[in-house]
Amino acid sequence: MTTPSWHADPLNWGTGPRIFEAFLEPTCPYSVRAFNKLDELLSQAGEDKITVKIRLQSQPWHMYSGVLVRCIIAASTLEDGKQTAKKVMAAIAAHREEFEFERHAGGPNMDVTPNQIIERLEAYSGVKLKEAFAIPDLDREIKWHCKYARQNGIHVSPTFMIDGLVQPDMSSGDEVGSWVKKALGS
């Protein structure tokens, strides 16, 4: 078995013993809301008390989900790894509707190719993605995210897990402070 010439940087922040996992689909409005709260969660909880892990939850009703998830993982193989991936996720979040279909089945993106989506994302993020997107076995990492979600019974985004347990009562609409209390048990 040959060692791959690339490495996908895990999308983990913080070093704390409590593990907060967020399963996110990049164009889902609720996942975007959750994504935009993760830095504040880390700040309020303390990087030494919590580790925040983003798990990518591609969903077929978000029509370009697979392309965008691959872009994020591709970005994690580039210089600055997870920070570059986070920059790409932030660009998708900031321009979410430009990467989505109207009512999941129509609108201007019906005539957009995957290459045009990648180019659009490169323009918004400032990250050159095409070469990394084309890594032949990048799907190995994409499949890991998918299998991990499936083995944990994750179906919707966002879904949250704390220390390996799904938290069905947590929502992207919750205040960050309630996430902190739930994660740290205080």
TrEMBL record:
Pfam families given in the database record? Thioredoxin_4 (PF13462)
Q: Which domain of life is it from?
A: Bacteria
Regions that span the bilayer: none
- Outline the extent of the Thioredoxin-like fold domain: 18-181
SUPFAM superfamilies the record matches: Thioredoxin-like
Question: Which residues are in coiled coils?
Answer: none
Please identify the protein, giving its name as recorded.
Thioredoxin domain-containing protein
Organism whose genome encodes this protein: Rhizobium sophorae
